[in-house]
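Each field is listed here:
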Amino acid sequence: MKKLEGSFIFLFLVLVAVGIAFEMLFRWELLVLFAIGICFLFTSRKEGIPKKKARSRLFIAAVFILISVLLTATFKIGLVIAGIFAVYYYVSRKRAPQLLMVKTKETAENLNPRNTFIRNQWFGNQRVLDVVYEWDNINIQTGIGDTIIDLGNTVLPTGESVVLIRSFSGKIRLLVPFDLGICLEHSAIFGHLQYDKESTVVQNDTIKLYSDNYETAPRKVKIITSVVLGDLEVIRL
């Protein structure tokens, strides 16, 4: 199922890209905008050009190319289809969730702490079980899917640790030991926030709260989450 979803998404992106290219060929105004953007892009990479001028030309190139793409009907149709797919996937996950698992543990002596232990995944499901690594701040991006982060199996350092999660659609569940101080900052276009058995509807809001023991706890965790369409659940163990 995971490979099938990945193949479908890849094919969809290819079709959208091909459709945009063909549409530009038959709409001279879009082709002109795109060509101007490409010209600015190449001139920004000339040798000897001042960095400030190069950045300005690169910005102008990005604006022209982006406008030429956004004005195509293919892009708009593809965006609508992607939105419908995201909503459908979110509703289906609510019925039968399959979760991305990230379990943390204290490092082994022979482990290289520079190893990458979490891979960002935009679509589909992934399970990472019994992964051993030295604690470091968590910074992940997910597209469509649910995420579980269990902080109960690691020894956090004294002070404040950071968990940063950006997601498009899906549920984020955080399992946090009760003795940790929590600073939570959650932003969502639409979804729910559940903390200490209290549920709050989030509609284009940013909510920031602290646990009762945040000031006195020797070990703290700062949780920053940004979700377009999805829920956040913080469970204190």
